[in-house]
Structures are given as C-alpha cells and as structure tokens.
Amino acid sequence: MDPTPLTRTRPSTAEVSGTDRPRPARHVRLDYSRTRQRRILLHPEAVVVLNGTGAAILELCDGRHTVAEIVSELGTRYRGVPEEEVRRFVGRLVARRWLELSDG
C-alpha cells in the first residue's frame, strides 16, 4: 500500500518576502458592501467580510506595491504595524489562492 496520501493539503501560510508584490488572484475581487458597510473580498466560494486592518492591507495589494512598501504605507497611517503580521496575513491569502505574488 502506498503511504502517499491521495489528496494534498494546502499549507496554512505561504512564505512571503518583503520584495514580493501581492495582487488579487484573477477570480478574486475586493469590493465594498453597502449592506455591511465594510470592504469585502469576493471569490467563487464565498464572500469574506474584512476588518479594517485586512481591508487596508488588501487595498495596497495591487501588484505594484511590495510587501515592505505596504508595511511602510500602513506605518504612516497607523502606529506600530508589525511587518511579520502583514507577511503572515498575505501568506495566508496566498495559501488560499486569493492573492498571487510576483517577485520585486
């Protein structure tokens, strides 16, 4: 019997560097819900209602900004934006295939 599983689980977090440039995957769209009065992430399986921090990060995930630039921009808006937390958040969305990365 082959010990290799038939299905593979996706990693919970992808490795993200400061030079990566995240952007929404083709099947994902950042939008605003008037009903919920919040930013939402639309993808084929569901709608994700974002908190303020998640929305602020995703608004900058346009394929032009590097992760380091996103952290810097958020640092000018808010105090104390930990780069590692932004990288983990982006990494989780990459692992779910909601964001894609291109090299800086």
UniProtKB/TrEMBL annotation:
Molecular function as annotated in GO: quinone binding
Pfam family, one: PqqD
Keywords linked to the UniProt accession: PQQ biosynthesis
Segments of this protein annotated with the region Disordered: 1-26
Gene Ontology BP term (one): pyrroloquinoline quinone biosynthetic process
Extent of Polar residues compositional bias: 1-16
InterPro entries: PQQD (IPR008792), PqqD_bac (IPR022479), PqqD_sf (IPR041881)
Pathway of action: Cofactor biosynthesis; pyrroloquinoline quinone biosynthesis
UniProt keyword annotation of Transmembrane helix present: no
Alphabetical list of NCBIfam families matching this protein: PQQ_PqqD
Name of the molecule in the record: Pyrroloquinoline quinone biosynthesis peptide chaperone PqqD
Gene source species: Streptomyces misionensis
